[in-house]
Amino acid sequence: MFIDIIKTIILGIIEGVTEWLPISSTGHMILAEEFLKLDVTDAFFEMFLVVIQLGAIMAVVVLFFKKIFPFGFNKTKEETNETFDLWKKIIISCVPAAIIGIPFDDTIDRLFYNSWVVALMLIIYGLWFIKVENTQNGKKIRVKKVSEISYRDALIIGLFQVLALIPGTSRSGATIIGALIIGLDRSTATSYTFYLAVPVMFGASLIKLLKFGFLWTLSEVAILIVGMIVAFIVSIISIKFLLKYIKKNDFKVFGYYRIILGLVVILYFLIN
Q1: Please, what sign has the CA dihedral across residues 65, 66, 71, 74?
Q2: Residue 75 and residue 78: Cα distance in Å, rounded?
């Protein structure tokens, strides 16, 4: 049990870092599974990898609670309306992925959840990040605040989020790329991606929980709790880092990292 807790802590760290940086948590988890197998059933481990995201998403709720909660904090009527407007846009962004992801969740996992697809997506979107950033130079920024995002922008970003249903793409990576292409600045694209994660990840975790059920052993409960706590703490650090980093830098470094990781995944599974 002690060894499993240590492994869970490492998995929580990986989740807390990779969920928010646009480098694909799935790609990292596939490699992690090779070295950090827990003494649990395959069904539980599959559920754990999704539900651990609850810890990560609570970091967003805590850090941006004033922004995403419409009441309190001495908000003016205008600020309250702005928050409700934000949630309308978030819902619009969620619709495309919900329409495709909910009914075809198992099919997508069966067809695409393998190392080759993940490696390919890591490389493709790494190249795409570099290309998008190269074309951003000199391009006029149309949206510099989250409140300036239109309902049309929200829908387009939601369509890009559909791409993240393929493992290895990265939900944050797909939505950030989409947001940059349609004219959002980096900070706004990143912030909106964080807000958008709240219903998406809560929904995904709930679906996995309902499918698996709630009959857990004490060791499984301990693994879930430890994983979520670690993911929460590390997510706080990762989110703050990314928001600070993109104020002075672009996303190309993450593109290069994705390409390298994709090649590592391919080489590892070719050798083994």
Answers
A1: positive
A2: 8
Q: Cα separation of 169 and 120, whole Å?
A: 9
- Report pTM: 0.89
Q: How far apart are CA 109 and CA 111, in angstroms?
A: 6
Give the Cα separation of 145 and 195 in Å (integer): 13
- Distance, in Å, from the CA atom of 37 to the CA atom of 42, rounded to the nearest integer, reads 10
Alpha helices in 164-217 (DSSP H): 171-181, 186-212
**Closest CA relative to residue 64, chosen from 209, 190, 159, 167:** 190
> In this prediction, what percent of the chain has a pLDDT beyond 70?
100
- What is the tens place of the pLDDT at every residue in 105-119? 778 878 888 888 989
Strands (E), 60-155: none
| DSSP assignment string, 205-230 | HHHHHHHH-S---HHHHHHHHHHHHH
Task: Quote the CA–CA distance of 250 and 134 in Å, as a whole number.
Answer: 10
Backbone angles phi, psi at 143, to 5 degrees: -125, 120
Residues 6+ apart with CB under 8 A from 217: none
The SS3 call for residue 242 is: helix
Residue 62 CA to residue 204 CA, distance in Å, equals: 20
How does DSSP classify residue 143?
B
Distances (CA, A) of 241 to 139, 146, 164, 244, 247: 25, 19, 23, 5, 10
Question: Rounded to 5 degrees, what angle do the CA atoms 159, 163, 168 make?
Answer: 155
